[in-house]
From TrEMBL:
Glycosyl hydrolase family 13 catalytic domain boundaries: 67-424
PANTHER family, A to Z: 1,4-ALPHA-GLUCAN-BRANCHING ENZYME, MALTO-OLIGOSYLTREHALOSE TREHALOHYDROLASE
Disordered, as annotated region: 190-215, 354-373
Native organism: Isoptericola peretonis
Family annotation (InterPro entries): GH (IPR017853), GH13_cat_dom (IPR006047), Ig-like_fold (IPR013783)
Biased composition (Low complexity): 192-203
Name under which the protein is recorded: Glycosyl hydrolase family 13 catalytic domain-containing protein
Length: 514
């Protein structure tokens, strides 16, 4: 239906080669508002609409597919070797828009990160919040709409930054969206409120996506088409996927099917795409343990926690890391497409708080022990060091990496980040080796291959015997270079000041400027 004129245009079944799909015989002009009427019922928006200027319950609008892209030479980035900065649109700028965020992309690039991970841009009702339902294909109009996202991505690529979008599948088939009129998009079970979620509409449950039941072919195609739209039409480089919302028990798990499709699309477009896989309690484990070590310096139980974490989260590549069953099956089903799957991440606290699966209890705990007001810059430097050099791709936040860097302390954190990101390729090259953890009093040493991180976790300086490291080991980065020294195999550490040691050929990156 065309709301302005009341005109009704017929749809017809496509045919046996696409059972259940309907098409119109004519294309609508760019800028036309339209709705669907299923079996003569009340008009509803197009579930695959990219542009919804009237809100999630109003008519859809036809978007001009042409955009003056300037990123023709962009081929993507290896997100496994670099680092991402989480851009939470509502809080990143006072305006809370994509165009306002784009103004800071040059500052983001100055931190040395590979790209940005953008919080969900899918359209939702501002009065009820995204948990009440999101339109996956559409860009939220208060953020600037679809054109603003295209401008953001194009500008990011000009600055050498990849763009990863957070895909809020958790709320994609919420009851209020009315997708049941089109087919069995929702399964019988539901995703309950986030564990510890605050009361109110934001904590309401939502139906699960129907990925393995009767009629699941349609919902699977819906999600694949959504992913293709962002990668192809909006030039984004990857998607962040919530494991919990994509659970299925089919012979070919959806995650594997999606990875295979994204792999083929990348080959066709000659671009590198990535799917980052995350979920509740996965990417925050390292930062949680480091927080606890800083809170209880010299506690050997905390060091044991770090040792166990090293074995569980950062095992040598030949070993098989723990993954949820659906993710394990997906990896087996998508071996050819494994180059697009990035399944182990490490998030800094604010980057973890702003993802859809974070609970209110986790948010309160992070605020209590390491929020922006409580954490010192020394603590931030410690967390940055472990997160960036641990091996798994890190997602940083603007509490630890201030953007823009407007004063001396912010510039120091940015310089430290740039130094660590420069060292990351060397550390990542040793992913096939085990992590070794050693403690001496309040001093801690973590080593994998050529790279070692040392830290005096207490409030007093400490010394650490590093004579067991290779003879050509040298100090390459220190948060407090004036108070740090390496003499005759003994490392002198200022309190709570991380140090990076490297064996072998000199690294390109050096100590951060004070």
């Amino acid at each position: 239906m065309l709301p302005e004129t009341g005109e009704r245009l017929p749809l017809r079944l496509v045919g046996a080669h696409e059972p259940g799909y309907w098409r119109a015989d004519a294309e609508l002009a760019v800028g036309t508002d339209y709705t669907f009427s299923i079996d003569g019922r009340e008009p509803v928006p197009d579930p695959c609409s990219t542009w919804m200027p009237h809100g999630v319950d109003g008519p859809s609008r036809v978007l001009d597919p042409h955009f003056p892209w300037s990123d023709g030479d962009w081929r993507g980035a290896d997100l496994g070797l670099g680092a991402l900065l989480r851009v939470d649109l509502p809080s990143f700028t006072p305006e809370g828009t994509l165009d306002a965020a784009a103004e800071h992309l040059e500052d983001v690039a100055a931190t040395g990160v590979t790209g940005v991970e953008v919080s969900p841009v899918a359209a939702f009702d501002p009065r009820r919040g995204p948990a009440a339902g999101v339109r996956l294909f559409a860009v939220h109009e208060p953020f600037g709409g679809p054109r603003a996202l295209q401008r953001f991505v194009d500008r990011a690529h000009r600055h050498g930054l990849a763009v990863v979008l957070d895909a809020p599948h958790r709320w994609a088939v919420a009851d209020g969206l009315g997708l049941h009129a089109f087919g069995p998009y929702a399964a019988g079970s539901r995703i309950g409120p986030r564990t510890g979620a605050r009361p109110g509409p934001a904590g309401s449950d939502s139906p699960r996506l129907n990925l393995d039941g009767s009629g699941s072919r349609g919902p699977r195609d819906f999600l694949v088409a959504d992913a293709e739209r962002w990668l192809r039409d909006f030039h984004v480089d990857g998607l962040l996927l919530d494991v919990e919302s994509l659970v299925d028990r089919s012979a070919v798990p959806f995650l594997g099917e999606l990875a295979e499709d994204v792999h083929r699309l990348g080959e066709r477009l000659e671009r590198r795409f990535s799917l980052l896989v995350d979920g509740p309690g996965r990417s925050d484990r390292l930062t949680t343990v480091v927080h606890e070590i800083l809170a209880a310096p010299g506690d050997d139980d905390r060091a044991q926690d770090l040792r166990r974490l090293a074995q569980e989260v950062f095992p040598p590549i030949p070993e098989t890391p723990w993954r949820p069953p659906s993710l394990r099956r997906a990896h087996r089903a998508a071996q050819r497409a494994s180059s697009v799957l990035v399944s182990d991440l490490t998030r800094l606290p604010a980057a973890n708080r702003s993802v859809p699966w974070t609970s209110a209890a986790q948010e309160d705990a992070e605020d209590a022990r390491g929020g922006a007001a409580a954490a010192t810059d020394d603590d931030r430097a410690c967390l940055l060091t472990f997160a960036i050099l641990a091996g798994t791709p890190p997602v940083l936040d603007t509490e630890h990496v201030p953007v823009p860097a407007s004063d001396a302390r912010a510039r120091r954190l940015v310089a430290w980040t740039r130094t660590l990101v420069g060292l990351r390729p060397v550390a990542s090259a040793d992913r096939d080796l085990a992590v070794e953890i050693r403690t001496e009093g309040t001093a801690l040493l973590g080593r994998r291959g050529r790279t070692a991180v040392a830290l005096a976790t207490g409030t007093e300086p400490a010394t650490l015997d590093v004579s067991s490291l290779p003879d050509d080991t040298r100090l390459v980065a220190a948060w407090d270079p004036d108070g740090t020294s390496l003499v005759d195999g003994v490392l002198h550490l200022p309190a709570r000041s991380p140090v990076v040691l490297l064996a072998g050929e000199p690294a390109q990156a050096g100590p951060a400027d004070r």
